[in-house]
Amino acid sequence: MTTNPHDLNTYLEVAREAALHAGVILKEHFGKVCPSMIDEKAKNDYVTDVDKKSEEIIKGHIKSHFNNHGILAEESLEEKNTSAFLWIIDPLDGTLNYIHGLPNFAISIALEIEGNLAVGLIYDPLRENTYSAMKGHGSFKNNKRIQVSHSKTLNTSLIATGFPYRIKDIIDPYLKVFKDFFMCATGIRRGGSACLDLAYTAEDIFGGFFECALSPWDMAAGALLVEEAGGMVTDFKGNDQYLKTGNIIAGSKGVHHEMLEIIQKTFKK
Protein backbone atom coordinates (compact mmCIF):
# COMPACT_ATOMS: atom_id res chain seq x y z
CA MET A 1 0.00 0.00 0.00
CA THR A 2 1.45 3.35 -1.05
CA THR A 3 -0.58 6.36 0.01
CA ASN A 4 0.41 10.00 0.02
CA PRO A 5 0.83 11.15 3.66
CA HIS A 6 -1.13 14.28 2.78
CA ASP A 7 -4.06 12.03 1.87
CA LEU A 8 -3.71 10.15 5.18
CA ASN A 9 -3.78 13.48 6.99
CA THR A 10 -7.00 14.33 5.21
CA TYR A 11 -8.60 11.01 6.18
CA LEU A 12 -7.43 11.40 9.78
CA GLU A 13 -8.83 14.91 10.01
CA VAL A 14 -12.23 13.74 8.74
CA ALA A 15 -12.19 10.95 11.34
CA ARG A 16 -11.27 13.47 14.04
CA GLU A 17 -14.09 15.83 13.06
CA ALA A 18 -16.61 12.98 12.97
CA ALA A 19 -15.55 11.75 16.42
CA LEU A 20 -15.73 15.22 17.94
CA HIS A 21 -19.25 15.76 16.59
CA ALA A 22 -20.42 12.37 17.85
CA GLY A 23 -18.68 12.90 21.17
CA VAL A 24 -20.96 15.85 21.89
CA ILE A 25 -23.95 13.49 21.82
CA LEU A 26 -22.20 10.96 24.09
CA LYS A 27 -21.40 13.65 26.65
CA GLU A 28 -24.90 15.15 26.53
CA HIS A 29 -26.61 11.83 27.28
CA PHE A 30 -24.11 10.31 29.70
CA GLY A 31 -25.86 9.52 32.96
CA LYS A 32 -29.27 10.04 31.35
CA VAL A 33 -29.89 6.68 29.63
CA CYS A 34 -33.28 5.23 30.56
CA PRO A 35 -34.59 1.66 29.91
CA SER A 36 -36.67 2.78 26.92
CA MET A 37 -33.42 3.81 25.16
CA ILE A 38 -31.81 0.35 25.49
CA ASP A 39 -32.14 -2.77 23.33
CA GLU A 40 -30.48 -6.16 23.91
CA LYS A 41 -28.98 -7.35 20.61
CA ALA A 42 -27.89 -10.65 22.13
CA LYS A 43 -27.35 -12.02 25.61
CA ASN A 44 -25.48 -9.30 27.55
CA ASP A 45 -24.83 -7.35 24.33
CA TYR A 46 -26.62 -4.01 24.38
CA VAL A 47 -27.20 -1.02 22.11
CA THR A 48 -28.69 2.33 23.03
CA ASP A 49 -30.27 5.13 21.05
CA VAL A 50 -27.05 7.03 21.77
CA ASP A 51 -24.94 4.37 19.97
CA LYS A 52 -27.20 4.70 16.94
CA LYS A 53 -27.18 8.48 16.91
CA SER A 54 -23.40 8.57 17.29
CA GLU A 55 -23.04 6.18 14.36
CA GLU A 56 -25.37 8.26 12.19
CA ILE A 57 -23.27 11.35 12.85
CA ILE A 58 -19.97 9.61 12.10
CA LYS A 59 -21.19 7.91 8.94
CA GLY A 60 -22.87 11.07 7.72
CA HIS A 61 -19.71 13.12 8.18
CA ILE A 62 -17.54 10.55 6.39
CA LYS A 63 -20.00 10.20 3.52
CA SER A 64 -20.12 13.96 3.10
CA HIS A 65 -16.42 13.81 2.22
CA PHE A 66 -15.98 10.32 0.71
CA ASN A 67 -19.32 9.13 -0.62
CA ASN A 68 -17.74 6.27 -2.58
CA HIS A 69 -15.95 4.66 0.41
CA GLY A 70 -17.16 1.47 2.07
CA ILE A 71 -18.29 1.48 5.70
CA LEU A 72 -18.31 -1.28 8.33
CA ALA A 73 -20.00 -0.03 11.49
CA GLU A 74 -21.24 -1.86 14.57
CA GLU A 75 -24.88 -0.83 14.55
CA SER A 76 -25.75 -1.08 10.84
CA LEU A 77 -25.27 -3.32 7.84
CA GLU A 78 -21.93 -3.17 6.08
CA GLU A 79 -21.99 -0.84 3.10
CA LYS A 80 -19.90 -2.72 0.56
CA ASN A 81 -18.75 -1.46 -2.82
CA THR A 82 -15.75 -1.77 -5.09
CA SER A 83 -13.79 0.95 -3.31
CA ALA A 84 -10.34 0.19 -1.90
CA PHE A 85 -11.33 2.22 1.17
CA LEU A 86 -13.21 0.77 4.15
CA TRP A 87 -14.05 2.76 7.27
CA ILE A 88 -14.41 0.62 10.42
CA ILE A 89 -16.47 2.34 13.11
CA ASP A 90 -17.47 1.72 16.70
CA PRO A 91 -19.68 4.68 17.67
CA LEU A 92 -19.61 3.80 21.38
CA ASP A 93 -17.17 1.18 22.63
CA GLY A 94 -18.09 0.40 26.20
CA THR A 95 -21.87 0.58 25.89
CA LEU A 96 -22.52 -1.35 29.10
CA ASN A 97 -20.22 1.02 30.98
CA TYR A 98 -22.12 3.92 29.43
CA ILE A 99 -25.51 2.51 30.44
CA HIS A 100 -24.41 2.13 34.06
CA GLY A 101 -22.71 5.51 34.30
CA LEU A 102 -19.18 4.15 34.35
CA PRO A 103 -16.97 6.79 32.65
CA ASN A 104 -14.92 4.40 30.53
CA PHE A 105 -16.02 4.45 26.90
CA ALA A 106 -14.82 5.86 23.60
CA ILE A 107 -15.38 6.27 19.88
CA SER A 108 -13.19 4.25 17.51
CA ILE A 109 -12.72 5.02 13.82
CA ALA A 110 -10.26 3.29 11.48
CA LEU A 111 -9.65 3.32 7.75
CA GLU A 112 -8.42 0.36 5.72
CA ILE A 113 -6.92 0.99 2.30
CA GLU A 114 -6.64 -2.06 0.06
CA GLY A 115 -7.16 -4.27 3.12
CA ASN A 116 -4.44 -2.64 5.22
CA LEU A 117 -5.02 -0.44 8.26
CA ALA A 118 -3.91 3.06 7.32
CA VAL A 119 -5.56 5.46 9.78
CA GLY A 120 -6.81 4.99 13.33
CA LEU A 121 -8.46 7.35 15.79
CA ILE A 122 -9.87 6.81 19.29
CA TYR A 123 -11.68 9.62 21.07
CA ASP A 124 -12.48 9.63 24.80
CA PRO A 125 -15.10 12.40 25.00
CA LEU A 126 -15.27 12.74 28.79
CA ARG A 127 -11.52 13.26 29.18
CA GLU A 128 -11.27 14.92 25.76
CA ASN A 129 -8.34 12.71 24.80
CA THR A 130 -7.73 11.93 21.14
CA TYR A 131 -5.44 9.06 20.15
CA SER A 132 -4.41 8.94 16.50
CA ALA A 133 -2.13 7.05 14.15
CA MET A 134 -1.27 6.96 10.47
CA LYS A 135 0.55 4.03 8.94
CA GLY A 136 4.27 4.72 8.98
CA HIS A 137 3.96 7.99 10.90
CA GLY A 138 3.74 7.02 14.58
CA SER A 139 1.06 7.25 17.26
CA PHE A 140 -0.08 10.33 19.15
CA LYS A 141 -2.19 11.38 22.12
CA ASN A 142 -3.50 14.92 21.74
CA ASN A 143 -0.80 15.48 19.08
CA LYS A 144 2.02 14.34 21.40
CA ARG A 145 4.02 11.28 20.34
CA ILE A 146 3.44 8.12 22.40
CA GLN A 147 5.35 4.84 22.68
CA VAL A 148 4.56 1.42 24.10
CA SER A 149 6.14 0.25 27.34
CA HIS A 150 9.89 -0.28 27.49
CA SER A 151 9.27 -3.28 29.74
CA LYS A 152 10.35 -6.58 28.22
CA THR A 153 8.75 -8.89 30.78
CA LEU A 154 5.32 -9.63 32.21
CA ASN A 155 6.56 -9.45 35.77
CA THR A 156 7.05 -5.70 35.46
CA SER A 157 3.88 -5.06 33.46
CA LEU A 158 0.25 -4.19 34.09
CA ILE A 159 -1.94 -6.21 31.70
CA ALA A 160 -5.44 -5.47 30.38
CA THR A 161 -8.08 -7.93 29.20
CA GLY A 162 -11.78 -8.30 28.51
CA PHE A 163 -14.14 -11.12 29.40
CA PRO A 164 -15.47 -13.30 26.53
CA TYR A 165 -19.14 -12.50 27.17
CA ARG A 166 -20.14 -13.24 23.57
CA ILE A 167 -18.79 -16.82 23.62
CA LYS A 168 -19.10 -18.09 27.17
CA ASP A 169 -18.26 -21.68 26.23
CA ILE A 170 -14.59 -20.66 26.11
CA ILE A 171 -14.65 -19.32 29.67
CA ASP A 172 -12.67 -22.27 31.06
CA PRO A 173 -9.63 -21.90 28.77
CA TYR A 174 -9.88 -18.13 29.16
CA LEU A 175 -9.77 -18.44 32.96
CA LYS A 176 -6.79 -20.78 32.66
CA VAL A 177 -4.93 -18.11 30.67
CA PHE A 178 -6.12 -15.43 33.09
CA LYS A 179 -4.64 -17.40 35.99
CA ASP A 180 -1.34 -17.85 34.16
CA PHE A 181 -1.12 -14.10 33.57
CA PHE A 182 -2.22 -13.38 37.13
CA MET A 183 0.74 -15.41 38.41
CA CYS A 184 3.22 -13.57 36.18
CA ALA A 185 2.13 -9.97 35.70
CA THR A 186 2.22 -7.05 38.13
CA GLY A 187 -1.57 -6.85 37.82
CA ILE A 188 -4.54 -7.32 35.49
CA ARG A 189 -7.26 -4.80 34.68
CA ARG A 190 -10.61 -5.13 32.89
CA GLY A 191 -11.90 -1.72 31.82
CA GLY A 192 -14.77 -2.73 29.53
CA SER A 193 -13.64 -0.83 26.43
CA ALA A 194 -11.24 -2.72 24.16
CA CYS A 195 -10.33 0.32 22.10
CA LEU A 196 -9.31 2.26 25.21
CA ASP A 197 -7.33 -0.74 26.48
CA LEU A 198 -5.41 -0.70 23.21
CA ALA A 199 -4.92 3.07 23.38
CA TYR A 200 -3.57 2.71 26.92
CA THR A 201 -1.25 -0.04 25.69
CA ALA A 202 0.03 2.30 22.98
CA GLU A 203 0.80 5.01 25.55
CA ASP A 204 2.60 2.78 28.07
CA ILE A 205 -0.10 2.49 30.71
CA PHE A 206 -0.55 -1.21 29.99
CA GLY A 207 2.35 -3.41 28.98
CA GLY A 208 -0.01 -5.66 27.05
CA PHE A 209 -3.63 -6.50 26.22
CA PHE A 210 -5.43 -9.69 25.19
CA GLU A 211 -9.03 -10.59 24.49
CA CYS A 212 -11.13 -13.20 22.69
CA ALA A 213 -14.07 -12.95 20.31
CA LEU A 214 -13.90 -9.26 19.51
CA SER A 215 -15.30 -7.59 16.39
CA PRO A 216 -13.18 -5.62 13.88
CA TRP A 217 -14.54 -2.27 15.08
CA ASP A 218 -13.36 -3.08 18.63
CA MET A 219 -9.76 -3.50 17.51
CA ALA A 220 -8.95 -1.78 14.22
CA ALA A 221 -7.99 1.73 15.35
CA GLY A 222 -6.35 0.53 18.56
CA ALA A 223 -4.29 -2.12 16.80
CA LEU A 224 -2.79 0.48 14.47
CA LEU A 225 -2.08 2.72 17.46
CA VAL A 226 -0.10 -0.05 19.19
CA GLU A 227 1.85 -0.96 16.05
CA GLU A 228 2.71 2.66 15.27
CA ALA A 229 3.75 3.15 18.91
CA GLY A 230 6.38 0.44 18.44
CA GLY A 231 4.42 -2.55 19.69
CA MET A 232 3.28 -5.87 18.25
CA VAL A 233 -0.25 -7.01 17.48
CA THR A 234 -1.21 -10.56 16.49
CA ASP A 235 -3.92 -13.13 16.84
CA PHE A 236 -3.48 -16.12 19.18
CA LYS A 237 -1.47 -17.97 16.51
CA GLY A 238 1.02 -15.15 16.20
CA ASN A 239 -0.37 -14.11 12.81
CA ASP A 240 -1.91 -10.84 11.64
CA GLN A 241 -5.46 -12.18 11.28
CA TYR A 242 -6.86 -10.68 14.49
CA LEU A 243 -9.54 -8.67 12.68
CA LYS A 244 -10.86 -11.95 11.25
CA THR A 245 -10.40 -14.28 14.22
CA GLY A 246 -11.47 -11.76 16.87
CA ASN A 247 -8.61 -12.91 19.12
CA ILE A 248 -5.92 -10.34 19.81
CA ILE A 249 -2.64 -9.94 21.70
CA ALA A 250 -1.02 -6.50 21.76
CA GLY A 251 1.90 -5.05 23.64
CA SER A 252 5.56 -4.18 23.68
CA LYS A 253 7.61 -6.73 21.79
CA GLY A 254 9.03 -8.51 24.83
CA VAL A 255 5.72 -8.63 26.69
CA HIS A 256 3.87 -9.70 23.56
CA HIS A 257 6.28 -12.61 23.13
CA GLU A 258 5.64 -13.84 26.69
CA MET A 259 1.89 -13.38 26.35
CA LEU A 260 1.81 -15.31 23.09
CA GLU A 261 3.73 -18.22 24.65
CA ILE A 262 1.32 -18.41 27.59
CA ILE A 263 -1.80 -18.17 25.44
CA GLN A 264 -0.61 -20.79 22.97
CA LYS A 265 -0.22 -23.33 25.77
CA THR A 266 -4.00 -23.25 26.22
CA PHE A 267 -5.37 -22.00 22.88
CA LYS A 268 -3.47 -24.45 20.69
CA LYS A 269 -5.79 -24.48 17.67
UniProtKB/TrEMBL annotation:
EC id: 3.1.3.25
Keywords: Hydrolase, Magnesium, Metal-binding
Domain of life: Bacteria
Catalytic activity: a myo-inositol phosphate + H2O = myo-inositol + phosphate
Family matches, as PROSITE patterns: IMP_1, IMP_2
Enzyme class: hydrolase
Cofactor: Mg(2+)
InterPro entries linked to this entry: IMPase, Inositol_monoP_metal-BS, Inositol_monophosphatase-like, Inositol_monophosphatase_CS, Inositol_monophosphatase_SuhB
Keyword Metal-binding included in the entry's annotation: yes
Keyword Transport: no
Similarity section: Belongs to the inositol monophosphatase superfamily.
Protein name: Inositol-1-monophosphatase
Species, as recorded: Candidatus Brocadia sinica JPN1
